[in-house]
Recover the amino acids of this structure.
C-alpha cells in the first residue's frame, strides 16, 4: 500500500544522487541502541516454531540426500550387475572420470592463443553484444533533470517499508530507501541540514515514536540524516521491559507532519500520544509541546499566510487553532463531532481550511473566529462552514454553507489545487477520486475517476504542475491523473494551464 505522497519541486533534486557511505561504527552502535532489533524479538520467537518445522523438513531432505549418495556409492562399486540400465550408468561415470576432473591435459590452450581473443577494442566490434546501449540507457535513467518532478511515496510491501523516488513522466522508480518502520505520513522539506542553501529531505512519521528525516539525494542510505525523538534504551527483566525515551520525544506513533515553509527549520508533528510538538530540525530539539487534545492527534497544518498559526485535528472530535508565539493560550477550538483524519489550508484564502473526518455526522457548532471549513465524513459527506460571522459564545451555532454526498464510503484524503481557486480533489476508500468546483459555495462534481489504485488513501496536487494529481492506495501502485485531459476541467480552468502557481502573500 501507499500511505503518503510528497512532491519534490523541480530543480531541487541532484541530477545524479550520491552513493551512500557504509555505516560507521558509531552508526551501527546507534542502530543497536535504538531498540529496533529488540522489538523484533517477539516476532522472531513466533517464527521460531516455523523455523523448527523447516529445519525438520531440511533434516528429512538431508536424510534423503544421504541415502541417495549411499546408493550412488554402492552403485559405483557394483561389478557383477548385468542389467543394461545399470551398466549404462557405470559406463557414463567412468567416461566422466570425476577422480581426475581437475587434471589438465597437455596441449590444450584454455585461454586461446593470446589477449586478442579475450576482448574487442570496442563494444561495437563484439558480435556477442546485442544490447550495446544498455549501459548508456541505465546511466541516463539515473539522471534527474532540472525540469523533472519527483514524487516520493511512502509504501509498504511484503512487510518491507520503502521511500520510493518516482519520475513524474514515466513513473519510473528512480531509487528507493528501505525504512525500518511502517510509514504513516511524510513531509518534504528543503532546510539545509547538511549545509548549503537548501536540501532535499523527507520527514517520515511511522508506528514508532521517532521522526526520521531522510536525504533523497543519497542512494542506498541505511541511516536517516536526522532522528527527532525516539527510544533511547530498552531494558528487559524477565518478560517485562522498560522503555526509556529520548528527551521530549513522542511516546507513540507519529500520525501527522507539517513543514513550515517560512521558517524552514521548523517541523510540526502529531502523535497518538495526544500531543503536538514543534521541532527545530537543525538542532534536533523539541521547541514546544502542546497538549490540547484528549485523544490521538491525527493531523497538523501550518497556515501558509500566517506561518505562526498551527492547526491540529484529533480523534477527540475537535480541531484546535493555536499561535505558536503564545503557547500558554488555550487557542480556539471547534467541534466536528468525528475523528479528524486530515487537514488542509486553502492556499487561496487565509481564512479557509478543510477537514476530513471519519464518523457519521458533524455538529454545526464551530467556534473559531474567521474560518471557513470543509468537513469530510466517513459516510462520504463533505460539509462546508463559513464561520467568519460566528460568535465565540459556546451556545452559538453556525449553519453549513453547503453539504454534498461526495463518496459512497469515507473520504480519506482532501487536497486543494495550488493554482486554481475553489478546485478540490477528494479521494475515498470507495476507490474513487473526484474533482469539485466550490465556486460561490455551490459545489459541483466536474470529474471523477477510478484510478485502479484500490482504496484511495492519499491524493496530492503538484505545485510545479498543478494539473497533475498523484494518487496512492491499497494496491501500492502510484497513479498520476492529468486532470487537464478532462474536457470539463479544460473548459472551465483552461486559462490556468499555462500559468504558474502564485506564491502566498505574507
Amino acid at each position: 500500500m501507499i500511505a503518503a505522497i510528497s512532491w519534490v519541486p523541480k530543480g531541487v533534486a541532484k541530477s545524479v544522487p550520491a552513493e551512500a557511505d557504509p555505516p560507521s561504527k558509531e552508526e551501527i552502535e546507534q542502530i543497536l541502541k535504538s531498540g529496533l532489533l529488540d522489538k523484533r524479538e517477539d516476532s522472531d520467537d513466533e517464527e521460531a516454531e516455523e523455523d523448527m518445522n523447516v529445519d525438520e523438513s531440511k533434516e528429512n531432505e538431508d536424510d534423503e540426500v544421504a541415502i541417495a549418495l549411499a546408493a550412488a556409492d554402492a552403485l559405483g562399486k557394483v561389478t557383477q550387475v548385468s542389467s543394461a540400465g545399470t551398466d549404462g550408468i557405470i559406463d557414463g561415470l567412468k567416461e566422466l572420470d570425476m577422480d581426475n576432473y581437475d587434471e589438465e591435459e597437455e596441449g590444450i590452450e584454455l585461454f586461446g592463443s593470446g589477449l586478442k581473443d579475450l576482448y574487442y577494442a570496442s563494444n561495437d566490434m563484439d558480435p556477442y553484444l546485442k544490447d550495446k546501449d544498455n549501459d548508456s540507457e541505465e546511466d541516463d535513467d539515473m539522471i534527474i533533470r532540472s525540469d523533472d518532478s519527483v514524487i516520493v511515496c511512502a509504501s509498504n510491501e511484503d512487510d518491507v517499508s520503502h521511500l520510493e523516488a518516482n519520475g513524474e513522466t514515466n513513473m519510473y522508480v528512480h531509487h528507493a530507501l528501505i525504512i525500518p518502520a511502517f510509514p504513516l505520513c511524510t513531509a518534504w522539506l528543503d532546510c539545509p541540514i547538511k549545509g548549503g542553501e537548501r536540501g532535499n529531505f523527507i520527514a517520515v512519521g511511522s508506528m514508532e515514536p521517532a521522526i526520521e528525516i531522510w536525504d533523497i539525494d543519497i542512494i542506498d542510505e541505511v541511516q536517516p540524516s536526522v532522528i527527532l525523538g525516539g527510544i533511547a534504551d530498552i531494558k528487559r527483566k524477565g518478560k517485562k521491559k522498560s522503555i526509556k525515551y529520548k528527551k521530549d520525544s513522542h511516546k507513540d506513533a507519529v500520525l501527522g507532519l507539517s513543514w513550515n515553509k517560512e521558517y524552514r527549520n521548523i517541523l510540526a508533528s502529531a502523535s497518538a500520544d495526544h500531543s503536538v510538538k514543534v521541532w527545530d530540525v537543525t538542532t534536533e530539539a523539541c521547541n514546544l509541546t502542546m497538549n490540547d487534545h484528549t485523544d490521538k492527534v491525527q493531523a497538523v497544518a501550518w497556515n501558509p499566510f500566517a506561518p505562526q498559526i498551527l492547526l491540529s485535528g484529533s480523534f477527540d472530535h475537535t480541531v484546535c487553532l493555536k499561535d505558536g508565539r503564545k503557547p500558554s493560550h488555550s487557542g480556539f477550538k471547534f467541534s466536528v463531532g468525528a475523528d479528524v483524519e486530515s487537514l488542509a489550508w486553502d492556499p487561496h484564502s487565509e481564512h479557509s481550511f478543510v477537514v476530513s473526518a471519519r464518523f457519521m455526522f458533524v455538529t454545526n457548532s464551530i467556534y473559531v473566529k474567521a474560518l471557513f471549513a470543509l468537513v469530510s465524513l466517513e459516510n462520504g459527506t463533505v460539509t462546508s462552514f463559513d464561520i467568519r460571522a460566528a460568535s465565540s459564545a459556546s451556545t452559538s451555532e453556525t449553519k453549513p454553507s453547503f453539504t454534498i454526498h461526495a463518496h459512497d464510503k469515507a473520504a480519506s484524503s482532501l487536497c486543494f489545487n495550488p493554482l486554481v481557486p475553489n478546485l478540490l480533489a477528494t479521494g475515498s476508500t470507495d476507490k474513487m477520486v473526484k474533482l469539485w468546483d466550490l465556486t460561490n459555495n455551490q459545489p459541483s462534481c466536474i470529474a471523477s475517476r477510478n484510478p485502479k489504485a484500490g482504496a484511495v488513501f492519499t491524493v496530492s496536487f503538484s505545485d510545479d504542475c498543478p494539473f497533475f494529481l498523484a494518487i496512492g492506495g491499497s494496491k501500492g501502485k502510484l497513479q498520476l491523473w492529468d486532470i487537464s485531459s478532462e474536457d470539463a476541467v479544460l473548459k472551465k480552468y483552461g486559462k490556468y494551464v499555462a500559468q504558474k502557481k502564485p506564491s502566498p502573500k505574507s
In short: The longest strand covers residues 150-157. Confidence is low (pLDDT under 50) at residues 75-83, 358-371, 389-398, 502-506.
